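Friendly challenge for the regulars: who can give me the structure tokens for this chain first? No prize, just bragging rights.
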Amino acid sequence: MYDVILAFITSFALTYLAIPSIINLAIKKNLFDEPGDRKSHQERTPSLGGIGIFAGTLFSIILWTPFSYFGDLQYILCAFIIIFLIGAKDDIDPMSPSKKFLGELFAASILVFRANIRLTSLYGFFGIYEIPEIASILLSVFTIIVIINAFNLIDGINGLSASLGLLITSVLGVWFLLIGSIEIAIVAFSLGGALMAFLKYNITPAKIFMGDTGALLLGLVCSILAIKFIELHNDLMNSPYTFRSAPSIAIAIMILPLFDTLRVFVLRILEKRSPFSPDRKHIHHIMIDLGLSHMQATGVLFLINIMFIIMAIMLQNMGNFMLLILILAVAWVMSMAAARMADTKNLNKSK
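First reply, four minutes later:
Bragging rights claimed.
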């Protein structure tokens, strides 16, 4: 318990103290995220905040994880370093999507093959439970890469990614602490502490963005937490902290980045465009188009994510498939209603 608290405090302090120096360095070296048509900020802003998040998280994990708990954590830290190098390179000198994907694939493979971060079942979806090893490997790698990129795609307005990351790491971190999984709880709270410190500099007017360095690391950690949350339920049959429909609850905990990615991909495909083509269809863009400020939009989306978590926990007895359908249906209706309101508002403006 004390190790977890100290990990949070250490990560917070190191990130809080490191970011001002990173901001000064970015200004001196002219390393800015430039405004653009698809971006929601109007000022040139440093985008290397992820370096501070990475430093605080990594240092805290290594310092406070008891050696007896370390286990496969060394491989998780290797994946961290790969993702950090990809993100830092892309923030300083943009990389091609194919090279980024290969780096993410490498990091995901380390987690799956060496750290044993792996989904071993479909948990009743489509009537399927245990799956063959090759299917387990492919599903796990796919899941990790999807979550990594989902957080990268939602990082579009001040405070949003860090706030959602703090919510997710707090919810899952407390659960890991309650079941005695200390090493994973330390990972969660180390990132949570770094994100809380980063928010001080990322709320409007933002002094720095987390960039790909932070967003990719956030996605990687959340993928680890989600998979471990799902898989550890196999060993907690008689625990008071066991949830029914754990996979659907994990999706509800990360509903905003996951659903937003699914939504924009579907819309782009329906418009006969590449799902990776850029546009302003993300949910945070819709919130801005509705006239909300960055922090108002972040607050609304943060509360909506909490609503989905509470809903999933209350309705966990529905079963995985039905609960997932309900979560996606509610998310789709809410997003389409918001998009229609934004379109109406823009139409009235143009008249």
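The beta strands are 32-33, 45-46. The radius of gyration is 20 Å. Your move, everyone else.
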